[in-house]
């Protein structure tokens, strides 16, 4: 069992799901960020509970060489979409999708399956397959 699988089991034990795991650096310090979702929503107490559950796992199998901080949080209202399940869970939300030609589509996500998505833009419906997507995220019009 690898580290991510161990973390997923621990998070499920807290009645939540791993949305994504991101390794990054901020101000010269490593950050191991575990983004989680929950049917009832994510709050500070749930993040603390999950952090307590996965900290011992990271003590045994360090995800980053050297000093790092563990962060557990929700993916937020404006979140990256990387996997088909991210898109499926975001149907009816506003999305911004960039393809490898640097073209950007914005609109309401109408459909997502394991192969492609359909977005309702101001110019009509656009269908794009996952292998054409460079990056994607939800967005909120403030």
Describe the structure in your own words:
By secondary structure, this protein is an alpha+beta fold. The chain has 2 domains: 3-73, RimP-like superfamily, N-terminal (GMP Synthetase, Chain A, domain 3); 84-138, SH3 type barrels (Roll). 23% of the residues lie in helices and 41% in strands. It is built from 3 helices and 8 strands, in the order αββαβαβββββ. The chain has helices spanning 3-12, 44-60, 84-88; strands at residues 17-26, 29-37, 68-73, 94-99, 104-112, 116-121, 124-129, 133-138. The chain has a 5-stranded antiparallel beta sheet. A hairpin with a 2-residue loop joins β6 and β7. α1 (3-12) packs antiparallel against α2 (44-60). The longest helix is centred in the middle third of the chain and has 17 residues, at 44-60. The chain is elongated and about 50 Å long.
Helix and strand arrangement:
Layout (H helix, E strand, L loop, with lengths): L2 H10 L4 E10 L2 E9 L6 H17 L7 E6 L10 H5 L5 E6 L4 E9 L3 E6 L2 E6 L3 E6 L4
């Amino acid at each position: 069992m690898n580290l991510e699988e161990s973390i997923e089991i621990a998070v499920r034990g807290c009645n939540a799901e791993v949305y994504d795991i991101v390794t990054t650096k901020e101000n010269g310090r490593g950050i191991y960020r575990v983004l989680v979702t929950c049917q009832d929503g994510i709050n500070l107490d749930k993040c603390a509970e999950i952090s307590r559950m996965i900290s011992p796992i990271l003590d045994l199998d360090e995800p980053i060489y050297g000093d790092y901080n563990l962060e557990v949080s929700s993916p937020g209202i404006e979140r990256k979409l990387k996997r088909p399940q991210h898109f499926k869970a975001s149907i009816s939300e506003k999305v911004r999708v960039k393809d490898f030609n640097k073209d950007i589509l914005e609109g309401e996500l109408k459909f997502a399956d394991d192969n492609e998505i359909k977005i309702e833009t101001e110019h009509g419906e656009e269908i794009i397959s996952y292998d054409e997507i460079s990056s994607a995220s939800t967005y909120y019009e403030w």
